[in-house]
Write a structure and sequence with these properties.
CATH class of the largest domain: Alpha Beta
Largest sheet: 5 strands, mixed, barrel
Shape: elongated
Number of strands: 13
Radius of gyration: 31 Å
Strand order of the largest sheet: 6-12-11-7-13
Structural class: alpha/beta
Strand content: 15-25%
CATH superfamily of the largest domain: Nucleoside phosphorylase domain
CATH architecture of the largest domain: 3-Layer(aba) Sandwich
Order of helices and strands: HHHHHHEEHEEEHEEEEEHEHEHEHH
CATH topology of the largest domain: Rossmann fold
Length: 439
């Protein structure tokens, strides 16, 4: 190493004193500038992912490719400068004797630069491919879910529940407020039907404001079921529905049941159940640079620990999704907003900017969480995975997801001890569960 450094010093001294040294120095400085630009392009790829997700798509992969090209160009220019400075016309004996040492040292340095550039480029490209193409199916999934048809589920008891609101009696006008254990929130007809088929007698319907409440028993608990519109911000969406429901039926726990998108095809399958430890509203964003960069400015809506702990990852729960596969419950943060996400690029932006550790997302959870937290009532979002929000949405799993979520909730709330446990949940509202979103 000392010999290489001494040779390099001698070569630089000769280079700066020969007649053509300004041209050679300019060539070297240009190549160093190119190297700097290449390093910036390669290193900036992770930060450029939100730009890709906003519309540039796979063009962002040109960044590491261009970086590697510029590294090679810089290496070629340095080689040309070295060749020019050590050519046949060079007469300095010390440099002539050390030409081979200089050449080996320069080649080693350039090789290291090229290897680093190629490695970073390959790693960045692979990470981007993983993020953008999460729909790739691993062997554990067993089959490509996009090819599953609804016929697979037609023999299941939950497939086509013949449940209408009239089955629970005529719609009455309330004479006052009520008191129940559960307020059950759903957002469409399929979700409502899956929950309604689990409501047992005695039942009756009551209209209060914009909502019709179906009252009965859900497992061992008294419950009121309502259907809101999708999202959180409309007049009949989840936030207003939760506020009105709490004021009318005074529940001990608010449950939002239905379907959601999962975060990863690698770790989740249709019918797996997501239990929220918190809801992260993703709509509160600062959009910069013409919409290319999102900066999350919201806050996490944390669930109560007493409510989260009521629903364990219970291996005793058994629900068949696809033939030979059982649903798995999973706890963690969910993202929630007004958009029906069916774009891999948009999903990538939402998860990276708001909550990289989220297990899924929906449209109603944030509204339920805001309203319940405001009223001091425990809440949970329990939803089954119906798709992955990646551009390959398949409604074949819509009923499956809701049925799995209802089955899991019934498994916990069907025991005779459930009403007493809910009273304990209500008493534990001051203890909130942690919500680590990985930011």
């Amino acid at each position: 190493m000392i010999r290489i450094l001494l040779s390099l010093r001698t070569w630089v001294r000769w280079l700066l004193t020969r007649p053509g040294s300004p041209n050679l120095a300019a060539g070297l400085s240009q190549s160093l500038v190119i190297w700097l630009i290449a390093a910036i392009l390669v290193a900036a790829l992770p930060a450029a992912l939100p730009m890709a997700a906003q519309g540039l798509g796979l063009l962002v992969l040109l960044f590491p490719a261009l970086g590697a090209f510029l590294l090679g160009l810089g290496a070629a220019m340095n080689w040309a400068c070295l060749r020019a400075s050590t050519g046949r016309r060079m007469s300095t004996p010390s440099c002539m004797s050390n030409r081979r040492t200089l050449g080996l040292g320069a080649a080693a340095v350039l090789s290291v630069f090229l290897l680093i550039g190629a490695g970073v480029s390959a790693l960045s490209g692979y990470n981007y491919w993983q993020a953008l193409h999460g729909e790739r199916v691993t062997a554990s999934c067993g089959l490509l879910y996009a090819d599953v048809k609804e016929d697979v589920f037609r023999d299941r008891e939950w497939w086509n529940p013949a449940v209408k609101i009239d089955d629970f009696g005529p719609i009455q006008t309330p004479g006052g407020t009520l008191n129940v254990d559960l307020l059950l929130i759903t957002a469409n007809q399929d979700e409502w039907a899956q929950v309604a088929r689990a409501i047992t007698a005695p039942t009756f319907n009551v209209r209060k404001g914009d909502f019709v409440y179906t009252l009965g028993r859900f497992g061992a608990c008294t419950a009121a079921l309502i259907r809101c519109s999708q999202g959180s911000a409309e007049q009949t969406a989840s936030q207003i529905a939760t506020l009105d429901g709490i004021a009318f039926v005074h529940p001990k726990l608010v449950l939002c049941l239905g379907g959601a998108f999962g975060a990863s095809r690698q770790s989740q399958a249709p019918g797996d159940v997501l239990v929220s430890s918190c809801a992260v509203p993703y709509e509160h964003q600062k959009v910069c640079c013409g919409g290319l960069v999102w900066k999350w400015r919201g806050s996490e809506l944390t669930a109560w620990r007493s409510a989260v702990d009521l629903f364990p990852s219970d291996r005793g729960w058994d629900f068949e999704t696809l033939p030979g596969r059982r649903a798995i419950p999973q706890k963690g943060p969910i993202v929630s907003g007004e958009k029906l996400v069916n774009s891999a690029e948009l999903k990538c932006v939402i998860l990276q900017s708001c909550c990289p550790d989220a297990i899924g997302g929906d449209m109603e959870g944030a509204g339920v969480a805001v309203a319940a937290n405001h009223e001091g009532i425990p809440w949970l979002v329990i939803k089954g995975v119906m798709d992955w929000g990646d551009g390959h949405k398949n409604d074949a799993f819509k009923k499956l997801a809701s049925a799995a979520a209802v089955s899991y909730a019934l498994h916990v709330l069907g025991s005779p001890q459930a009403p007493a446990a809910l009273a304990g949940v209500a008493a534990g509202t001051a203890m909130r569960a942690p919500c680590a979103c990985g930011r």
